[in-house]
User: Which sequence fits this backbone?
DNA sequence: CGTGTGTTTGATGAATTTCAAAGCAGGTGG
DNA sequence: CCACCTGCTTTGAAATTCATCAAACACACG
């Protein structure tokens, strides 16, 4: 049974080799025909240059996007122009889920480095999901995961001090990179301090000071955008509700 | 064409008269047979006493719930016991969407007054949605709307000061009550100051002071939990990025 | 009428923002 | 190849906002 599954997953992987959303959103147990359908759905690759917008708030929804290569941020602007970063997306993450409600994107999505996405025609996706229950179920789960992620952010913004927020942010990046096969201890930040600050509800200066604190306590080594995590356990301990350094 | 639709919607309304999720999540253009299916899906009514939990974090997902009567809050607890209220739900709002990802609820849901919900068996819902494209589409939209709502909260927590947050909170309640046919100018808060504070990332004392500020500027009249909005426009103006009272 | 829960207000202190200035790195043109 | 921008980061000092602590108050309920 597991044999069959992993075999089909493999076929799928080959068929969809231009897209790595596999491990995140693809159902298993499909026929070759179905795989072909799925493949055609996500065939469109799109390159996005650093600092270019993949889409902007109020653009009509046509595609959902799965990041293939690179790094994105999504943000919303308040009426008076203040930016709120709502997320950072790395390979395998989805973009555009917020647009399904109204049919218009509610965020701006920018590439933080030269990137590539799979464009998934949303109408086609819904049609196909109609025929593939497991695809539909996975789509539901992807939506739900996004909600859970946002709840985590509410907790962070509502209850954590600046150092805890920063530690939580670094740990989150670390884990997500790790899941994707990269080092969890050393990585490079693709965003500016100001964007981290916006995401965490803090000013950029506060981010700098937070980094200095973590460094002073030998939890991390940071130079510019290069991060090395020195003491994962104490970092986790800090986030887990301990307001002070241990 | 609109005739047919509204007629069917009406049939649906009758069929599902025990549940008012209609206007929020039901697709139009269904056959009588389909209406019957949908009706059976949401037939289960559940009463929840004030302060009782509808479900708790880590309970396995069996149902989504649509609030029929009453008022709920959802919250998550951090490891060290701090509460973060993630939302307040009134009639027509859905509960439990966060659980679809893992199959376990991630929040606690409490009734803030004697309430009643429609329990929607999630597995059945997915099955039925498989057969009714418009139901599936609506489900997707409901998920997406929740994400948009959360993004609004991120903006609020990340970029607004305490008075702006409070004003935004009151306006949000006002609008949602209005959409449901209640007064947008006068209403009763079902939650304590502490719960408002948790939701807005503030302490309860700060909520009190914020209310005093709004009162001083003749924007609202508040006594206990009774709220009367005196100047909707200036309240909106305050939220729209004007850091100070106008 | 007392008790408990929830609300309000004041005084103080801590955390974060703001303002300011200097440092650093990468890219460009002389 | 160097000097000079420009954008980003870092650090310091002052100002502000919000949290904390404390006490009084209001109201409902037994």
Assistant:
């Amino acid at each position: 049974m597991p044999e069959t599954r992993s075999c089909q997953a493999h076929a799928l992987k080959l068929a969809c080799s231009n897209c790595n959303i596999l491990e995140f959103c693809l159902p298993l147990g499909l026929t070759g025909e179905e795989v072909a359908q799925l493949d055609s759905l996500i065939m469109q690759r799109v390159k996005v240059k650093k600092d270019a917008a993949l889409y902007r708030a109020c653009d009509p929804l046509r595609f959902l996007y799965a990041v293939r290569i690179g790094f994105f941020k999504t943000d919303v602007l308040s009426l008076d122009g203040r930016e709120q970063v709502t997320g950072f997306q790395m390979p395998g993450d989805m973009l555009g889920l917020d647009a399904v409600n109204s049919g218009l994107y509610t965020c701006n999505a920018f590439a933080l480095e030269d990137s590539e996405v799979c464009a998934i025609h949303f109408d086609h996706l819904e049609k196909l999901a109609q025929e593939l229950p497991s695809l539909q179920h996975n789509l539901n789960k992807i939506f739900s995961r996004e909600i859970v992620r946002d709840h985590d952010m509410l907790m962070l913004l509502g209850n954590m001090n600046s150092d805890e927020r920063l530690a939580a942010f670094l740990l989150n990046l670390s884990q997500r990179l790790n899941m994707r096969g990269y080092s969890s201890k050393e990585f490079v930040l693709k965003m500016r301090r100001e964007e981290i600050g916006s995401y965490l509800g803090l000013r950029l200066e506060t981010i700098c000071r937070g980094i200095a604190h973590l460094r002073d306590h030998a939890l991390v080594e940071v130079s510019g955008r290069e991060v090395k995590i020195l003491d994962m356990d104490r970092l986790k301990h800090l986030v887990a509700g301990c307001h002070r350094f241990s």
Summary: The first strand of chain B starts at residue 44 and ends at 48. Chain B has nine helices and eleven strands. Residues 161-162, 202-203, 205-206, 209, 224 of chain B lie near DNA strand D (CB under 10 Å from a C1').
